[in-house]
Amino acid sequence: MSLLDIRGVSMTRGRDQVLRDIDLRVEPGRIYGLLGPNGSGKTTLFKSILGANDHTGTIVRAPGLRVGRLIEYPAFYGCLTLRENLELHARYLRCPLREVPGLLAEVGLGDRADLRFSRTSLGMKQRLGIARALLGEPGLVLLDEPTNGLDPIGIRDIRELVRSVQRERGTSMVVSSHNLTEIASLADHLLFMRAGRIIRRMDAHEARGDLEGLYATVLGDAAR
């Protein structure tokens, strides 16, 4: 059974159509890469999945499915420690506080738990955002540009973390990016978005032979 079944989802904002007839099925234990330039509709689609947008069409979740998410920049309190921030979100989500130490360790922040959020690097902030997304053991996690703004080492570290989490937990993930090289090395399946549409789908291994040519062909001028 699919975890998520999206059929014919469209959305307008003012006079602009920001999502156009989106169809997508998310299966258990897979990583989906959602690829497209800024403004192509990736974040809007994520917010629609979470119920934050009005749209036409249907989005059906598997019964009891919990969806974790890291959407845009992770928002935490700068005056609180990493542990305190995650505990605060655990209370809000009604998740057991006993999850917090293990999650911090899982994302590589176990030895930084008492560091104030305001004193952390961008990579550490993203790791804490991923930990928050994993609260409550979700069956599906949405990660919106989780490596945005990171240097090459930070990108590699987050990519390896996402792989490790998926491998150990079996959690399905949809990860958005505008970087084909990055997402093709992470995902099982690729979805190319442009102007609010999914314009092509393919297995990631098919894309790895000609990443630059594929990106230019599929996304054209919007990729530049």
Automatic annotation (TrEMBL):
Keyword Transport applies: yes
All residue ranges annotated as the ABC transporter domain in the record: 4-220
Pfam families, alphabetized: ABC_tran
InterPro entries (UniProt xref): AAA+_ATPase, ABC_transporter-like_ATP-bd, P-loop_NTPase
Domain of life per record: Bacteria
UniProt KW keywords: ATP-binding, Nucleotide-binding, Transport
MF-aspect GO terms: ATP binding; ATP hydrolysis activity
Protein family: Belongs to the ABC transporter superfamily.
Protein name per the record: ABC-2 type transport system ATP-binding protein
Organism: Saccharopolyspora antimicrobica
Lineage of the species this protein comes from: Bacteria, Bacillati, Actinomycetota, Actinomycetes, Pseudonocardiales
